[in-house]
């Protein structure tokens, strides 16, 4: 019996105009929040307004849920800007949760300026008292180095603006003197990789000095790996940091950041075995402590045209690449898995007349190499193809039936076999013929608000983090769903 998603007979159409099922409001909000670079377009249109409207509506009935979702997005899913948006909705609609949310989502000083600028843009003035009071407390957590590093010069909301708006009472004389420096714009110029490169140039000697100082953060090392290599600096200590399990876990990096670095270095012929091993190790840290998924698993990766849209105007990473990466990571923790890459039969880039390609990977196959091999664009989104493979092709091999399918897709299904209305009917047929306990795990990659599955043994997940893999066995054991996890999230 399904404990998480009851049978959904509420039919609708997706953004491409084809049959789908509606999501509940909380499900739709969660999927939109965990799959958005807020302020950036998507193939089928932005979900920014959906997030604002849904968060406002849910705040009127269950403000605690929106508050916990903001904290979960920032601290577990590593989604920064959208957590600021949710915090502003809470500050405007549910003042009693404002201080807890602000306390939980401020990690760096520029979280403060971003939240204040976001609220002003969304609602104008005045700023709510609860927001001002907690900002006044949180800004005192940071030392001069941190405040100077994130002083937001040239931006519409600066730290001195924040002090003038919130009027914090300094906790001691040292903090009072620091606030005076912020107001007078006399903070000591911090020693950072940005200031050093600006002053001394992007040279081997400068990078060697920066790396030895230990003042270059994990994210900066990863994103500057290309520059460091091209400068001729010693990359060995950098690779040691990037592959250190504890540093990886504290870095808050989404997995696709490692693949992005790997792809860029490969394109520029800067890749070496040592760099490959370091990036591969960093990725495997994310899944090495996850419980093995038993039995037989079909992993379905959507590589259709809508999934090839870049995440942002400043990124070349595609949603299909994130789906492929998560699919490869999922295959690493499965006892027995087949990975099915699908788009639509006859599409210009699919090398199979069936519209899908099925691969079997070993437990120790390189995640990065799997992703590099399967970076191809597609045509339409025919989500029933993995189930068609399971029903027609796989049975002829007389293999044990699949225990589950894990979809990584935007759910914008716009083509069906056999005149189907949704993919759910294929799942029902598989359960009838092969495995009545067959599970469907739908990892939503874009949060458009509709799905292709409903009812028994369906588990809706969302996001671009390896955290989505946690919810596969949890759901099958009846422990919890993504929405339930957020409802039970403990704020500090």
Low-confidence stretches: 1-6
Estimate the mean pLDDT confidence: 88
DSSP summary: helix tally: 24
CATH topology tier name of the domain at 291-487:
Rossmann fold
What does the model show?
By secondary structure, the chain is an alpha/beta fold. Among the domains are: 35-76 and 79-149 and 152-184, no CATH class; 291-487, Rossmann fold (3-Layer(aba) Sandwich), CATH 3.40.50. 47% of the residues lie in helices and 10% in strands. It has 24 helices and nine strands. It has helices at residues 25-33, 48-61, 63-75, 81-93, 98-105, 109-123, 129-138, 144-149, 159-166, 173-184, 193-200, 204-213, 218-223, 225-231, 236-242, 245-250, 256-267, 273-285, 319-332, 367-373, 385-393, 424-433, 470-476, 482-487; strands at 11-13, 19-22, 293-302, 334-342, 356-359, 404-409, 439-444, 450-451, 458-462. The strands form two sheets. The protein has a six-stranded mixed β-sheet with strand order 5-4-3-6-7-9, sandwiched between helices. β6, α22 and β7 (439-444) form a beta-alpha-beta unit. α5 (98-105) packs parallel to α7 and α19 packs across α20 (367-373). The longest helix is centred in the N-terminal third of the chain and has 15 residues, at 109-123. The protein is globular, with a radius of gyration of 24 Å.
